[in-house]
Each structure stands twice: as C-alpha cells, then as structure tokens.
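Friendly challenge for the regulars: who can give me the structure tokens for this chain first? No prize, just bragging rights.
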Amino acid sequence: MTPDVHYYWRPGCPFCSMLRRGLDKRGIATVDHNIWEDPEAAAVVRSHARGNETVPTVVIDGVGLVNPSAREVTAFLERSGT
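First reply, four minutes later:
Bragging rights claimed.
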C-alpha cells in the first residue's frame, strides 16, 4: 500500500510551485494542505520545521521533508518500498 504524501504549501510560494510541477511530472499523488487556510496544517509544518512555517513541506508516514526537491521525495518513497 502506498502511503499518503501530504503536501503543505501556501499561495505565491515559488518553491511550492516548483515542487508541485516536479511531483506532477513524476505522477506522485498528494493530499494538499494550504497552510494559510488551515491552522492545523500550519501547526504540522511548524512541528517538522523547527517552529517555522517553511513550505513546501512534505510528510510521508509521519516523516517530514522540509523544502525537498521532487527527486528527494521520489527517493524517500523508493527507500520506503512504495
């Protein structure tokens, strides 16, 4: 079973746009969370980013990847056997 890939972002973030394009290109489905519209999502990001609201942040099986590249997300999924 493939774990959910939770993608935390905010409008206007160029790094978020770049990661979104890379994930889409690789066919990686995500559960999207806009941290400006969802306080709980913002709290999740802070918990993985040393109290900061650094986006994009990707969380897979409870592991947070802060400002990862699409390649890093792909590598994590491959290492976790998905």
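Residues 5-79 form a domain with the Glutaredoxin fold (CATH 3.40.30.10). The longest helix spans residues 14-25. Your move, everyone else.
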